[in-house]
Amino acid sequence: MSTIPACPQCAMENTYPDGENYVCPDCAHEWPMAAATSADDSDERVVKDANGNALVDGDAVVLIKDLKVKGSSITLKMGTKVKSIRLVGGDHEVDCKMDAGNFMLKAAYLKKV
Question: Where are the beta strands (DSSP E) in 1-113?
């Protein structure tokens, strides 16, 4: 199978490399090879906390802000430590278990311990 990507403009697959660009002979669209290689690496998503530190599964984090839980009277207090987080896809990147229950949190409100 060819490693040359299909044209992003017309989706035809008979593209070819030309110097530092890929070229589509059907629509004459040219795009840089560097963008195509960085798109291949985007499968590995990096989740960062409020300070910019990369988070991984199993990390311990601390809440940096009081968070009100929608549909409940529960408030998660600032400074609460959460152990053994799990990273998931979506808008709320962190899945965790706390005394108050299971929650999905945004990494922007967490700090790695």
Answer: 16-18, 21-23, 30-32, 47-48, 54-55, 61-63, 67-68, 75-76, 81-82, 86-87, 94-98, 101-105, 110-112
Position 14 pLDDT exceeds 90: no
Stated pTM of the model:
0.60
The answer on pLDDT for 43 being more than 60 is no
Q: Classify 47-112 by CATH class.
A: mainly beta
Q: Domain 1-43: which CATH class?
A: mainly beta
- Domain-wise residue ranges, the chain: 1-43, 47-112
What distance in Å separates the CA atoms of residue 93 and residue 112, rounded to the nearest whole number? 14
